[in-house]
Amino acid sequence: MPASPSTARAINDRLALRLLQREGPLTAGQLKQLTGLSRPTVADLVERLGASGLITVVGESGEQRRGPNARLYGIVADRAHLAALDVRTEGVLVLVSDLVGHVLAERSVPIGGGGGTGSAVERVVAAVERTAEAAGGRRLHTVGIGAPGLVDPATGDLRDSGGLPAWHRRLSAALQERLPGARVTVENETNLAALAEQREGAARDRDTFVLLWLGHGVGAAVVLDGALRRGASGGTGEIGFLPLPGTAVLPSATDCDGGFHSLVGAAAIARLAEEHGLPGVERADGPGVAVAVRAAVARVAQPPAAGSGTGPAEGFLDALAGRIAIGTASVVAVLDPGCVVLGGEIGQAGGAVLAERVAERLRRMSPLATEVRAGRLGGGAVLRGALLTARDRAQDELFAPAGP
Fold first, then answer.
1. CA distance 106 to 85
2. Are the beta carbons of 25 and 71 closer than 8 angstroms?
3. pLDDT tens digit string along 365-389?
4. pTM across the whole model
5. Phi, psi angle pair for 348, to nearest 5°
6. In sequence order, which residues have a C-beta less than 8 Å from that of residue 129 and are 6 or more positions away?
7. Is residue 183 classed as helix, strand or coil in its secondary structure?
8. Which residue spans within 148-272 are E strands per DSSP?
9. 283-305: per-residue pLDDT in tens?
10. Among 21, 140, 163, 330, which is most buried by a count of CB atoms within 10 Å?
């Protein structure tokens, strides 16, 4: 059954808007070429989108003669402002962007151990408001939050997970209350990192892959056939709780000690570096351990100096790769994703050197061919994924047809 005229217009409008989002400003002729639509149809949609305030003339193409055919059309970026938050145990990173994703203002909010839940929530909410003011003072249309822990698929809220601060769970509701006109969404941090790596990073050519997050903690995100898989309770990828052979204890429902986290969490990697005689890690968190991993990679990449060797660094990276491969092999055996991305600050710091070592060990442990890649976005992937999610939601609403 052919689409009605109004449905066809809506499809064409959204196609043009997505192209302008992806490619940047385009002339009507370029839109015609990229969409395959007729010249009159493109002229109609340009007029329609301009009248609705979604696109405007932003310049002229140097390759065209001056006049109507040279006009470059672009999305009206300030039609909406968006906020993205990366929520961590010790604080929050906040940024505000326009509708096309240009970052307008950023802020870091440290949260200490004292002060209580209410104080922490107030500090973060106030920081979001100040960042929005610094970006031009416009009302926020959408807020995307990336946080550790499980997101309840029925409610969209963070579940009460052991070890996470109580203010994490209060934050979404507090933002919604203080910003009543905004749309506030929460997503697991590792899922957002996978989205960012798929859109802009190491997995751009993959519609099926697993992202293994290596930061302060460990987690995984599963993308199958282009879709993020969350599981029945939102817990797909809670690989930190994966039981391992030979450990003194087994993980429990509230504590992942004895699980995969005990091998490749930041604190465990810091101890591993010390065991191999590497300089002490100043901070046993994702960024701190990433410094040690990056230094070891740099050491093995250089010819040994007289009287020295790469032994400690080689041994450390080999041991770390072996640990990562143990948990990764379990994921590969169940999902057969064909590609694993080592994400987070530590995965990015290890780069191709660590990824190649993990891949070599996987070949010994699994008959399933699996490419291992280093993440390109590091710890910034969560914030970027939160922004991409906020932008998608805002555009879905703003780009929706107004009606027949």
1. 10
2. no
3. 999 999 999 999 998 999 999 999 9
4. 0.88
5. -65, -40
6. 178, 179
7. strand
8. 183-188, 209-214, 218-224, 227-229
9. 878 888 999 999 999 999 876 65
10. 140
